[in-house]
Every structure is written in structure tokens, then in C-alpha cells.
């Protein structure tokens, strides 16, 4: 048993392990090459988050999905570079929108160089991803364009908020489907598509990726509340402090509106206050950690991972399928 990729995913088959590790190494080299510029300052800014590391969750899914066709096909590594570049570009933009100070343990680009440089660096990464896509053919360009449209739509919907009469939880899950699920789904789609897998297999893996992507973000929502240390890679209560209504908060509001319990209404009022105050922030965290809303959010996470697992059922039994199923287990474990 060997450990590769995020969450300590264990791969039992040595050939699969070698393919995945070789692929991820090639992706890392491809990311550094794709972020080089004739202008040294642009190279520094573009490689800022690449060198900071990361889970490389999306490239890992490309590599595993390619196992259902020819895992050595020439388009696999470039397509993995494309999805990771796209993901990194969104992080530059997200940090500007969220006014974030830190990303992946290093100062965010907007903190280091200002908002304008951060936004333009994100645009630079999108441009480089597009150049690589152009060599992968019109179908790859179309798939990526549709996913990018969904990603941006999800971000706009999050910014605008739910329309009157729309269930906030349903709205939020739609937002996550666009912001996160779309690019994870494309990761699986590219891996299968570039490997020449059967179209039915491509569709199955795309559906799996969509559900896993949402589950992955929901697990992050739970982790933001439940984690009591920075071991997870993020400071506990970050979303809470910034006033971002993630699923545990939305489930709390839903319960407060439905039952009208005094303690729920009081907690909602606390969450609506200025949580930049450390005392209030810690009080809100402690209350949410023991609240049924957090457990409901965990159940929502499990539901999406189970849907992802069920989507894999039509695929042939193999070590790659086992690894994809293990990722479902890892996401559930991440959510506690």
C-alpha cells in the first residue's frame, strides 16, 4: 500500500501508483513551464501559488480517470495542467473578492502585490490555460468553456444571493455545483476523454466528479467549524469570521425559521454580529460545534459522497475505480 495525492489516498497496485506519481510529477513540471513569462515579475506572481503547493486534487482525478482508457495518451498531462491552472486562476480572483490575507500558508497575491496585479495574474493563468487547450482540439475547448461559464455563473449567483422565495440551501448547493463541481467534473471528463475511453465511461466519470466536487466543498464547510486546530490547512472559523454563510450556518437559519427556538434565534443573532471580535467569534464557534445544524451539514456531505460512489457503479472493477471510491471515503473522513 502506497500513499499518493491528497488525503493520503492509498493505492495498492504498483503499476497504478507509478502511473499516478509519474503523471503528477509531469503536471508539476507543466505548471512551472506554463507560468513562465519573458517578464520576470510576471513569472514570480504567476508561480506564487504554484510553488506554495496544494493538494493537486483535480490533476489526481485526471490521472485516475485516464486509467479507463490509455493512461499514456498525449493529452492527459496537458489537460491536467489546464484544470489546475484554471483552479489557481480562480484562487487569485477569489482572494481579491474575499480580501484574503493568506493562501496556502503564504501571503495572498493581493496582499503582496495589490488587487490589480492579483486579478491580472489570474487572467494571465487563464490565457496560458487557453493556449494549452487550443492544442487539445475543439472539443476540449468547448468542454472547458462550458465549465468556465458554469464556474463564473456560480460565483455571480453567490454574490447576488438567492432570489425572493428561493430556498437558500438549494441556492447554495447550486452555487457549489458551479463554483466547485464544474471543474472537478471536467477533471474526470478530461482524463477519460483524453485517454480514449468509451463515451459512456466519460459520462459516468463526469457525473462522479460533479458530485464529488460538491461534497469536497461541503466537507470544507464542516471543517471550517469543526476543526480545532490549523492541522487541516485552514484556520478554524475563517468563513465564520468573514461572514460567509456556508452550509452549517444555512442549516441553522433554516432550523431557526422552522422551529423558532430561542437558542437558535440567539445564535443566528450572534452570527450576524461583528465576529472580528475574538470573544464573540469563539463563542459562535463553540455553539455551532455542538449544534444539530453541523451534524445536518455532515449528513449532506455524506449524501453527496454516496451519490458520487453510486455513479461509479457501471464502471468495470479495477484499482482505479477502487481509488476513486476511496476518495469518497476520504471526503467523508475530512468532514468528521
List keywords for this structure.
mainly alpha, 336 residues, two-stranded antiparallel sheet
Explain the overall architecture.
With 336 residues, the protein is mainly alpha-helical. 72% of the residues lie in helices and 3% in strands. The strands form 2 sheets. The chain has a two-stranded antiparallel ribbon with strand order 1-2. A two-stranded antiparallel ribbon has the order 3-4. The longest helix has 28 residues, at 199-226. It is globular. The model has no long low-confidence stretch (mean pLDDT 90).
Brief account:
This protein has 16 helices and four strands. The chain has 336 residues and is mainly alpha-helical. Helix 1 packs across helix 4, helix 4 crosses helix 9 and helix 15 packs antiparallel against helix 16.
Amino acid at each position: 500500500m502506497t500513499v499518493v495525492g491528497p488525503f493520503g489516498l492509498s493505492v495498492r497496485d504498483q503499476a497504478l501508483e507509478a502511473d499516478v506519481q509519474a503523471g503528477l510529477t509531469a503536471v508539476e513540471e507543466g505548471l512551472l513551464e506554463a507560468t513562465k513569462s519573458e517578464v520576470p515579475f510576471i513569472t514570480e506572481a504567476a508561480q506564487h501559488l504554484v510553488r506554495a503547493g496544494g493538494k493537486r486534487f483535480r490533476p489526481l482525478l485526471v490521472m485516475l480517470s485516464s486509467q479507463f482508457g490509455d493512461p499514456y495518451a498525449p493529452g492527459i498531462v496537458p489537460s491536467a495542467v489546464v484544470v489546475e491552472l484554471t483552479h489557481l486562476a480562480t484562487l487569485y480572483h477569489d482572494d481579491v473578492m474575499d480580501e484574503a490575507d493568506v493562501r496556502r500558508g503564504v501571503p495572498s497575491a493581493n496582499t503582496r502585490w495589490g488587487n490589480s496585479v492579483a486579478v491580472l495574474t489570474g487572467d494571465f493563468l487563464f490565457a496560458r490555460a487557453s493556449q494549452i487547450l487550443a492544442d487539445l482540439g475543439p472539443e476540449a475547448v468547448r468542454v472547458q468553456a462550458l465549465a468556465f461559464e458554469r464556474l463564473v455563473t456560480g460565483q455571480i449567483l453567490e454574490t447576488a444571493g438567492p432570489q425572493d422565495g428561493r430556498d437558500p440551501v438549494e441556492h447554495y448547493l447550486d452555487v457549489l455545483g458551479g463554483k466547485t463541481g464544474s471543474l472537478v467534473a471536467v477533471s474526470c471528463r478530461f482524463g477519460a476523454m483524453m485517454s480514449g475511453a468509451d463515451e459512456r465511461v466519460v459520462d459516468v466519470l463526469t457525473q462522479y466528479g460533479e458530485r464529488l466536487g460538491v461534497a469536497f466543498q461541503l466537507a470544507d464547510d464542516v471543517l471550517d467549524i469543526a476543526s480545532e486546530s490549523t492541522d487541516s490547512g485552514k484556520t478554524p472559523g475563517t468563513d465564520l469570521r468573514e461572514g460567509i454563510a456556508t452550509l452549517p450556518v444555512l442549516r441553522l437559519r433554516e432550523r431557526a425559521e422552522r422551529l423558532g427556538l430561542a437558542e437558535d434565534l440567539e445564535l443566528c443573532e450572534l452570527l450576524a454580529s461583528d465576529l472580528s471580535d475574538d470573544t464573540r467569534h469563539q463563542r459562535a464557534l463553540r455553539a455551532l460545534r455542538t449544534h444539530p445544524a453541523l451534524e445536518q451539514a455532515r449528513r449532506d456531505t455524506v449524501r453527496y459522497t454516496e451519490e458520487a460512489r453510486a455513479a461509479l457503479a457501471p464502471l468495470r472493477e479495477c484499482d482505479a475505480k477502487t481509488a476513486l471510491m476511496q476518495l469518497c471515503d476520504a471526503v467523508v473522513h475530512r468532514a468528521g
